[in-house]
Amino acid sequence: MSGSDDESAEAKSDRSPEPTPGTTVHEGRCRLRSLRISEVAVVAGVEATQVAAKRLADMGFTPGVRVEMLRPGRPCLVRLNGTCMGVGARYQKSILLTIVETRAERDERRSSTPLRE
Amino acid sequence: MASSSRTATRPKTVALAGNPNTGKSTLFNTLTGFRQRVGNYPGVTVEKRTGFLRGTQADTSIQLIDLPGAYSLGAQGADEGIVMDVLLGQRDPLPAPDVIVCVVDAANLGRNLFLATQVLEIGQPVVVALTMTDLAESTGLRIDVAALRERLGVAVVPVVATKNIGVDSLREAIQQAVDAPPTDRCPSFPDCVCAELDGLQASLASQPDGGGRDISRVEALQTLLEPGGYHESRVIKRCGRGLANELAERRQRIASAGESIAEVEARVRYAWIDSIIQRVVTQVKPPKPSKSQRVDRFLTHRVIGLAFFLLLMGMCFQSIYAWAGPVMNAIDGIFVALGGWLGELIPTGPLQSLMVNGVVAGVGAIFVFLPQILILFLFITILEDCGYMARSAFLLDRWMGLFGLGGKSFIPLLSSFACAIPGIMATRTIENRRDRFVTILIAPLMSCSARLPVYVLLIAAFVPSTPLLGGLVNMQAITLLAMYLVGVVVAIAIALVVKATILKGPPQSFLMELPTYKWPRPSTVLYRVYEQGREFCITAGTIIFAVALIVWALGYYPHPASIAQDHDARRAEAAEIYEANNLTQEEYRQRLNQIDRDESGTYLRQSLLGRAGRWIEPVVAPLGWDWRIGTAAIAAFPAREVVLATMGTIYNLGDETHERSAGLREKLQAATWPDGRPVFNLAVALSIMVFFALSCQCGSTLAVIRRETNSWRWPIATFVYMTTLGYVGALVTYQVVIRFV
């Protein structure tokens, strides 16, 4: 298990706009582990072994699905398709997301039209 | 009943499938009226639950099978694969179900329909039972059931099992479904995948072995899309290694066509499901955080949640000891009385001894623990039913990960501190087979309450009560704590070693749904507790009965008449003295009692058990033990609770000794080797305690392990490794401590 310093540095670099050497995350994308609380993102893909990838996909982590971070950490708590799910550290590293809205934007949207899910 | 050609066919077997936490079990209980049988599928550790439909005459011939909850028919091992196996009729003696009831949670329609679409593709009649509609409504969702029916092409019946709503309609729908044509509504897979599926089905149908069995499309799909998965391995076993190459080629072609093997099924199904949801589900009120979510804000909080959990566990253990105590004494009293009554009834001889000292004492020693076990089952079942277990697994996963385990192992291991039996039975919630087996292996190392009397007695007798840390704690308390820690530390080491060697495998990361909280239903909970209690009594009872007989026999035979004669002579002597008025009645009674105890002691000492103890004396001498300790340790193997009674008997104190009896303590302190050295000292006491901490001296535990793992390998392995650990631990403890003290 890497020390917490390494992990948070990696997590930060996941979010940098320019790809930093050593990561292969593209612009605008991040991994689940660096999603902050209340942020909403859309699944872009899964980078994992076939077994892990199929398990995640079958549970609902398919491209295009909205994910909201409820409680970051190890494991983290997210809302996916209306269900609360706990996701462990290994899977958090594997799930790639595109951030859709930050917390501020979400609060603004919520105060306007009711949501059609 | 004669059936004309116009009588509708009756379904004979109905299977219930669905996601976990959808109320499937509650529905099953309602449909069967709690008339159920629990068994095991061979080679698999999940339970097989069947029952008969309750209701009209027509209904009661229908067998219902409750399948384990599953998110998908894809499987990584037999425990997961069992669902599809049963649905396809590949598990003798269960026939293929005539109707499949797919339980779908209305509040989580999206993910629940994933399994439903797979089930629909099997081609058998399906009825969808829509549960938790009340919950969905409370979050502002409205479901157009008619539209859902039309989109899926099967009957959809809203059901609220807890309130018995819709259950009759479900029964009717099941009856009618048999004659309905299977649905043709299905998500369509991309051409490249369909082509490979067709090819695979054709190729398997033409195989000489397997009788050219038509492989179901669902099975073909899972075989193709899960390399190294359970279904693939089953098909390869049937059709030979050549198939492996063919599968690899087909997957390669799919990949070249631009599709991802891991993603394609999920993508296709969820896209189809989304289109259904668009049409069928409307959000009539803005979603507000449900009560469940608001509670979770605290209960999944890293600090508050953990504190709450510890508090809950503390309360649980406190009540176990508070409530169980009086009941245990009562049960103890009953068994002692029963023994006494039988003693009066049966004339002295082997039968009397067998019944009183063998059966009643042996079985009684186990049933005394039943209150504790039942209370523990009660807590575990309530926590699971209300949904809190998932939160505890969530909170603890991080810490358990340090030992190579998952969050779900915590509560089983914690329960084992009271008694390993409910703890091991609680491991059923751990889906990962490796994690489950490791947890089962180390659960007996958590010092259970049966070890406590041994610790208490030996510590009181041989550990000085010197105050430490300026009077804050004393040495005796620290020693007690140390004994518990010995078990825990060794358990962690074993877990790490086993996970790195025998049960090696990629660690499974946490991925779990946190179901909505719900009030546990008393009938479900109590039935579960009764069921588990019954299972314990049968499983443990039979083994203990058998082992108690063996140990009794070893302690009784040979039973030379000369001993009885000697002691009768002493009794006659005492009677003479009493007659001559040189003894008060009280003294006479006491002397007679002592003669009785001496007699039992003598019998034991030269019984097979006693001789075995002396025979192994050279083996236990490095541990600092003499043959009497060895004898007691052997006698304790079926149930460690009897060790004090055995020691009492060997020292001629009778077998009603308990840990606080001053008599036994004094006798131990005074016991000597033939050459006069005292047998017991601090080092010996510690070595005995360590032996008890690390050995598996509980036949019930082994019996339960056998039942839960469905094989003999694991209980035997547990027994062997723990006895070895106990011996080595006791050896090291004695040899080290004796040098310092």
Give an account of the 3D structure.
Chain A is of the alpha+beta class and 117 residues long. Chain A has helices spanning 4-14, 50-59, 89-94, 103-110; strands spanning 29-31, 40-46, 66-71, 76-80, 83-87, 95-101. Chain A has a 6-stranded antiparallel beta sheet with strand order 1-6-2-3-4-5. Chain B has 741 residues and is α/β, with parallel strands linked by helices. In chain B, the strands form 3 sheets. A 7-stranded mixed beta sheet of chain B has the order 2-3-4-1-5-6-8, sandwiched between helices. A two-stranded antiparallel ribbon of chain B has the order 7-9. In chain B, helix 5 (145-152) crosses helix 11, helix 21 packs parallel to helix 30 and helix 31 (699-709) crosses helix 32. The model of chain B is unreliable at 1-7 (pLDDT under 50). The interface between A and B is large, with 38 and 48 residues. Strand 5 (83-87) of chain A pairs antiparallel with strand 12 (511-513) of chain B, so a sheet runs across the interface.
The oligomeric state of the chains shown is heterodimer
Structural class of chain B: alpha/beta
- Trace the largest sheet of chain B across and list its strands: 2-3-4-1-5-6-8
Number of strands of chain A: 6
Flag low-confidence runs of chain A: 1-24
Strand content of chain A: 25-35%
Number of helices of chain B: 32
Determine the mean pLDDT of chain B.
Answer: 85
- The end-to-end distance of chain A, rounded to whole angstroms, is 39 Å
Main-sheet strand order of chain A equals 1-6-2-3-4-5
Task: Give the biggest sheet of chain B.
Answer: 7 strands, mixed
